[in-house]
Amino acid sequence: MNHKVSQRFEVLISGAGGQGIILAGVIIAEAGIAQKLQVVQTASYGPESRGGASRSEVILASSPIDYPAVTEPDFVAAFTQEAADKHAGRARSGGVVLLDSTWVEEMPPGLHGRVYSIPLTEEARKRFDKPIVANVIALGFFSEHNPLIGPDALLKALISRVPSHYREMNEHAFSLGRELAQVDVTV
Amino acid sequence: MNHKVSQRFEVLISGAGGQGIILAGVIIAEAGIAQKLQVVQTASYGPESRGGASRSEVILASSPIDYPAVTEPDFVAAFTQEAADKHAGRARSGGVVLLDSTWVEEMPPGLHGRVYSIPLTEEARKRFDKPIVANVIALGFFSEHNPLIGPDALLKALISRVPSHYREMNEHAFSLGRELAQVDVTV
Prior knowledge:
The structure is a homodimer. By secondary structure, chain A is an alpha/beta fold. Helices cover 35% and strands 21% of the residues of chain A. Chain A is built from six helices and six strands; from the N terminus they run βαβββαββαααα. Chain A has a six-stranded mixed beta sheet with strand order 2-3-1-4-5-6. The termini of chain A are far apart. The interface between A and B is medium-sized, with 20 and 20 residues. Strand 2 (38-45) of chain A pairs antiparallel with strand 2 (38-45) of chain B, so a sheet runs across the interface.
């Protein structure tokens, strides 16, 4: 007999405008669609004049999504201190929290997930001379920390979204994220 | 004295995969961002294998958005009978409901908005030989039926999203939508 268990996985990526937060959510959503999952993807933008808080939410599910809002995210990434303070504590128990320690210098309140504090932006700047690919490193990391979209599917969705002359750099950044996910850097 | 009233406008566009539902929501969101509004944009996808119900929600607001889900949409567009049956009745009293009568042949239940029944897909096919631009006609229509994003801003966001060789067709489709919004076709 084939007992299929319905799975639902909630993702919350938060930061500021210009950090590729929205695009990261779109890429996860597109990878999910390609995997024939049910997907709800939400992008929230504050006006740039206010500092531009930016947030992506993605719900991935193997059966129809009744409640389309993220409540207890299984995976939270935060790219600014403000985003970390606001969202990192929302991760469910046992969920994964990824903090870009280039910008998140103080541990946010209320943490109860597995916390990885990694200088994503600094790695992106140092290795690729492109701070913006911090989001791609995060995608590689994410691909190792969710049960529904594997690295190959996520990389494919990524590649279809980036200009071809940046393809190699994005592949490297994605691989770096996967490697960082293997290392035990839990704080 | 300058009394600014906080405004919030909820949009729900629903149909099937391949009808440009998601793109229409993204274009409204991008126009809203360019207008320095607060924007939450949500895209919901069902797997294609299940018929691919597709839904875009956009919340536009002049001040921070506390509750990021669409509850009583001010504007509902439905491009399939199924979408109309499910969502058209959710429009708030006094809201606008746009039905693509090419596909919505029976009036959906529970209507209490101002209802426009227009053969968007048939118009798109007849005039441009491209059924897909039904979504652009809808955007032109929308630009005349919301208080926060005018036609110029919406057209600009549209043009930045379409291939340049389709620019003229999209401009025409958008204009057609604006014209259809002027005609009293309320059912």
